[in-house]
């Protein structure tokens, strides 16, 4: 089992470094495992948007392509969406994402 560390900024602006992300977790599952208040209402199926977060630019570039179902959901939260928005349930663990900075999206 491998693990990387990321930085998470919560909805209150608190910044935590060294948050562990295990290789069998999506980014959403990592946030939930670390007790961040992510509802993940759809269970990680890219259909609810409650796991929406913002990535730092470099991580966004490395995190893989946004698939059509995720794109459709991001379109429904147009007001909140930013250029580096992702549904964290669709971001897979990758060693290259060590040091990622993730800002949890608004409720
Ligand atoms: S958990 Fe529902 S879209 Fe990610």
Give the tags:
2Fe-2S_ferredoxin-type; Ubiquitin-like (UB roll); Adrenodoxin-like; globular; iron-sulfur; 3 helices; metal-binding; 107 residues; binds FE2/S2 (inorganic) cluster; alpha+beta
Secondary structure blueprint with pairings:
Blueprint: E1 3-9, E2 15-22, H1 27-33, E3 52-55, H2 57-62, H3 68-76, E4 85-87, E5 101-104
Parallel strand pairs: 1-5
Antiparallel strand pairs: 1-2, 3-4, 3-5
Residues 28, 40-42, 44, 46-51, 73, 87, 89 line the site of FE2/S2 (inorganic) cluster.
Keywords: 2Fe-2S, Iron, Iron-sulfur, Metal-binding
InterPro entries: 2Fe-2S_ferredoxin-like_sf, 2Fe-2S_ferredoxin-type, Adrenodoxin-like, Beta-grasp_dom_sf
Domain 2Fe-2S ferredoxin-type: 4-107
Helix content: 10-25%
The distinct bound ligands, ions and cofactors come out as: FE2/S2 (inorganic) cluster
Under the CATH scheme, the architecture is Roll
Tally of individual domains: 1
Q: Based on Cα principal axes, name the global outline.
A: globular
Mean pLDDT: 97
Topology, number of strands? 5
Uncertain ranges: none
Number of helices: 3
Structure description:
The chain is α+β, with helices and mostly antiparallel strands and 107 residues long. It has one domain: Beta-grasp domain (Ubiquitin-like (UB roll), Roll), CATH 3.10.20. Helix content is 21%, strand content 24%. The protein has helices spanning 27-33, 57-62, 68-76; strands at residues 3-9, 15-22, 52-55, 85-87, 101-104. It has a five-stranded mixed beta sheet with strand order 2-1-5-3-4. A hairpin with a 5-residue loop joins strand 1 and strand 2 (15-22). The mean pLDDT is 97. It binds FE2/S2 (inorganic) cluster. FE2/S2 (inorganic) cluster (FES) is lined by residues 28, 40-42, 44, 46-51, 73, 87, 89. FE2/S2 (inorganic) cluster is lined by residues 28, 40-42, 44, 46-51, 73, 87, 89.
């Amino acid at each position: 089992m491998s693990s990387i560390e990321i930085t998470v900024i919560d909805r209150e602006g608190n910044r935590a470094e060294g948050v562990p992300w295990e290789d069998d977790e999506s980014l959403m599952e990592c946030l939930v495992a670390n007790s961040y208040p992510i509802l993940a209402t759809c269970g990680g199926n890219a259909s609810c948007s409650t796991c929406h977060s913002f990535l730092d630019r470099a991580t966004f570039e490395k995190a893989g392509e946004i698939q059509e179902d995720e794109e459709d959901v991001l379109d429904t939260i147009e007001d909140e969406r930013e250029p580096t928005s992702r549904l964290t349930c669709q971001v897979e663990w990758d060693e290259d994402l060590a040091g990622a900075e993730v800002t949890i999206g608004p409720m």
